[in-house]
From TrEMBL:
Protein's name according to its UniProt entry: Dihydropteridine reductase
Domain FAD-binding FR-type: 1-108
Gene Ontology MF terms: oxidoreductase activity
Record organism: Halalkalibacter suaedae
Family matches, as InterPro entries: FAD-bd_FR_type, FNR_nucleotide-bd, Riboflavin_synthase-like_b-brl
Taxonomic lineage from the root: Bacteria, Bacillati, Bacillota, Bacilli, Bacillales
Amino acid sequence: MQIYWTKINKIIEETPEVKTYLLDCPEGFTWEEGSHTHFALEGFNADEDKPNRSLIRHMSISTLPHENSIGITTRIKEQCSEFKAILRSLEIGDEVAIFKTHSNVPLKREDKNVYLLSSGVGLATFRPLVLDYFERADNVTHIHSLNIDSTKDFLFTNIFKTAPEKKFTSQFVDNRTDYYEEVKNLAADKDGLFYVVGSDEFLVQNIKVLREQGIKPEQIMLDKHEQMLPDFLSVDLATN
């Protein structure tokens, strides 16, 4: 396993609770849209036999390679974990590590409508997919993004804004009732592809709603390793 040590070159305050850390691109490091990586802080591998997992987090990369920085976008609340507290104290020039980078949710180009369903900072996973689509819309009919964020401090509104000429629609809602009502409406497209990013609880609830509306498991894309997908997608609808 190759560990890439790299430096923070910029810190962007997206909202009062959300920051994007832009990292230098190490030589030989590559990724594609929808990628996640293991993001680790100094000292995580001090013990060669056993890494300190409290200093490692699984993070989405919110940038594309041509932006020349690896973007890590995360929410840091007032009361937070040891990891987030250390991260909040880091400054430009400080070192972090990235390793085990992989994409579970690249943009599928199958001449269908694509629906991006996300909660809060989960939108960071979709930012590169949307940028990739704007640059090359081949074999994607339309993209619709739906994001729920109770803070109302919506992310990346310069990118996630409706653009009919680009066949892109963006919606932000701040409550579950409106959100799931809209998911049902979107699921009227029985041929669409539905990407879902958020907490496990959020994934399960979205999958349940989509499946109840007749969306098949193979139409639902999750940012999870392949071996974990059956645990989420085999929702039992018989009890409903």
